[in-house]
Every structure is written in C-alpha cells, then in structure tokens.
Amino acid sequence: MSYVRRVLVVGGGVGGLTAAATFARRGVEVVLIERRPAFDLPGVGLGQPANALRVYDTLGVLDEILATGFSYDRMHLFDLGRRLIVEHKFLLGDDRVPAFCALSRLQLHEILLGAAERAGVQVRLGVTVSEIHDAMDRVDVQFSTGQCDSFDLLAGFDGIRSTTRLHLVGTAFAPRPSGYGAWRVQAPRPDFVRGMEFLQGIGSKTGAMPLSNGVMYLFHIRPEAAGADFAGQDLARLFKERLAQYSSYVAEIAASLNSDSDIVYSPIEPLMLPWPWFRGRVVIGGDAAHTFAPHLTQGAAMAAEDAFVLAREVLDDEVPVEARLMRYSMKRYPRCAFVYTFSGQWLHDEQSVRSAQDLETARAELTLNASARIGVSDRILNGPI
Ligand SMILES: Cc1cc2nc3c(=O)[nH]c(=O)nc-3n(C[C@H](O)[C@H](O)[C@H](O)COP(=O)(O)OP(=O)(O)OC[C@H]3O[C@@H](n4cnc5c(N)ncnc54)[C@H](O)[C@@H]3O)c2cc1C
Questions:
Q1: N or C: which terminus of the chain has fewer CB atoms within 10 Å of its end residue's CB?
Q2: What's the CA-to-centroid distance between 103 and ligand 1, angstroms?
Q3: What is the per-residue pLDDT across 149-206, written as a single tens digit (0 to 9) for each?
Q4: CA of 369 to the centre of ligand 1 (A)
Q5: Which residue puts its alpha carbon closest to atom 27 of ligand 1?
Q6: pTM of the complete model
Q7: Residue 148, C-beta contacts closer than 8 angstroms, at least 6 positions apart
Q8: Does ligand 1 come within 6 angstroms of the Cβ of 13?
Q9: Rounded Cα gap, residues 213 and 230, in angstroms
Q10: Is 69 touching ligand 1 by the criterion CB < 6 Å?
C-alpha cells in the first residue's frame, strides 16, 4: 500500500495555499515553503469565478471572501468611447455562489493563509528547495537553509518560473513571450462600474474590475516588445500615453497617474504543459503547469481547482501513487487546455482590431456572437471538476 501522509507544498500563492489547506484538512501533515520572506504582494486584484469560489467553500472561507470582495454577475463590452456593444450575464454560479467575486490579491492570500494555518499547515517563509532526489516511495529534499527532509509527495505550486517544473521537464517547456503585455493600476470605483468591463480600442483594449465598494482596478492589454522592462519612473508617463484614445473614467484615471501611482506591468507569457504533470513523487499545478492570457480571469481559479483535485485524487484510494497522479493530470489537462485556447483566441481577436473599420467589424461581430460565445465557456467552467 502507498500512503501519502506528509506533503511538501512549494509556493505560497493561491494554488499552494489551497493545496496545503486542502491536504491538511484531510489529515495530512503539510509543510508549505514560500520563497518570499513575507506575504506582502503588490496591489491589484483577482476576479474569482464561481468555480474557484466553490473550491474556497470546501475550505470554509467562502463567506469571508464574499464579505471582503465585490460580487457581480455580468460583464459589459464597450467601445473606446464607452458606448455599449454588448452585455453578458454570466451563466456561472448558483444559489450559494455568485458568478464572480473580485478582491485584492493580498486579501485573498491572507484568507487562504488563515485557512491553511487553522488546518495545521507549517508555513516556512524565505525558504526554497535546493535539491530534489526521487526515491521509490518518497522524495528527499534539501532546503535552501541546508536542512534535509523526506516527504511522500512534493507538490510544486511555484508559479510561472517554477523550478519544480524544471526538475520534471527541464527547459523543454517554458513560458514564451506572446508579444502582449498587461498594465494595471488600482483606482477609485465610479458608481456605474458594477461588474467587469472591457473597452475595445484600436490596437489595444482596456477595462475595469471592481474590487470593493470604493476601489476597482484598471487594466490595459496591448502589444509590447518581448522582454520589455520599463523603468519605475517611466511607468506613469508610458501608461498615460497608452490610454490616450479612451474616454470616460479611463481618461480621468490616466490624467491622475503620477510617480506615486502603484502601476504593475506584466508580460503575457502563455504556457500549457502537456500531461503528465508529475514524475515519481513530484507533481506540479497552477501557473507552474499552465499560464493563460487573463481574459477569462481563470488563472488563479485553475490553480485552486488543480489543488483541490490533486488532494482528492491522491487521497482517494490506495492504487499506486503514480496512478493517482496520472489521474490528476488527465483530469486537469483538458479543462486547463480549454481555458488556454479560449483566452488565447480572445486575446488575438481583440488585438487584431487595428483600424476604425476593424472596430466597426468587431462591433458587429461581438453584438451578434460575444454573449453566446462566453456563455458556452461559462457552461463548461461551471460544470463539475
Ligand atoms: C494581468 C493578469 C491578470 C490576472 N487576473 C486574474 C484574475 O482576475 N483571476 C484569476 O483567477 N487569475 C488571474 N490572473 C492569473 C493569476 O494571477 C495566476 O494564475 C495565479 O496567481 C497563479 O497562482 P499560483 O499559485 O499557481 O502561482 P503564483 O501566484 O505565482 O504563486 C507562486 C508562489 O510560489 C513562490 N515561489 C516561486 N518559486 C519558489 C521556490 N522555488 N520556492 C518557494 N516558493 C517559490 C512565489 O514567490 C509565489 O508566492 C492574472 C494574471 C495576470 C498576469
């Protein structure tokens, strides 16, 4: 019989915290290590769709999340002058969970950390893994502190630059620049921004996501050179220039940007690792295995689902652990590949609007089809995992 009684979780993001709390709540001894010396993440927020909220419900923190964030059930597509193109009512959620609840990344991490600690997870900050050695029925680890230990399973939720992924597949699969980047900044929420919204521009897209009654975040997606590394003092000027074509609250926020504004820029670097996502007793999930264009706001949600399914499959029965990890990989891959394809196509479609005429063509197409298209995605993502 092969038992999984001690698990090392590498990475304290949404995926790692959810994995650690889920394993611990099912009686497993869990050590979670996080490279950062503190859980002090930069601002901006995360829209959490119903499928993620259902996972958080299993950790007993749904009410806390809903009380902290801003729930909404629809999205709007506008043009660059904020003239409505289409309204979409999400087909996500049920009587218990709303379609979406968005909150700051830091708040979500704090809530999940609380769940992990209450479940008995040992959290070690400022620690990484230096060496991993596969053994028949365990994995031996040396930490950056020099300490060595053995576990029944190592679950790497260590993000887009995962070293656990390197251990599994070397450099064969790495996130590649898409040629697009995402700009974000928090701003006061105008009362009329009551759900996620996109403003389709010419050569770029912008939009907003409410995070609380008082605050939302503004995002902007556009072509950016691969490897672009903008200096902090240039961010406000560059962001302002990039928002110049938009009106309404976007123009007001652009005008207010200055060197104190907490602007975050990230390149969009998609990755979809073919399964299996494990070797021996080492397995990965979350951004370590897949990263998406942000359009479906499903990145952290897929990390949380991975964590939940991993614990369920690994603890479900007593077939060899490798068979359980294979089952985990095979269950997760199609769903994540769907998000990868759908959001990637959406990114390319919106970014191909390069002229006023393209915008009119896109307006007609979106009016006819966008809600039905997103509705199909909703139905898939609202289904069982
Ligand atoms: C512009 C943008 C907008 C987005 N919006 C949304 C959204 O609205 N909704 C949504 O669901 N998702 C969204 N996402 C995606 C989401 O941010 C990620 O998918 C999610 O954070 C992945 O979680 P994770 O736990 O897998 O990885 P991460 O959050 O990256 O966490 C990994 C953790 O591991 C730690 N770590 C790394 N290496 C090591 C190591 N060797 N040892 C120990 N610790 C290590 C890191 O410090 C980090 O804390 C967005 C992404 C972008 C770029």
A1: N
A2: 15
A3: 999 999 999 999 999 999 999 998 989 899 999 999 999 999 999 999 999 999 999 9
A4: 31
A5: 159
A6: 0.97
A7: 140, 141, 142
A8: yes
A9: 31
A10: no
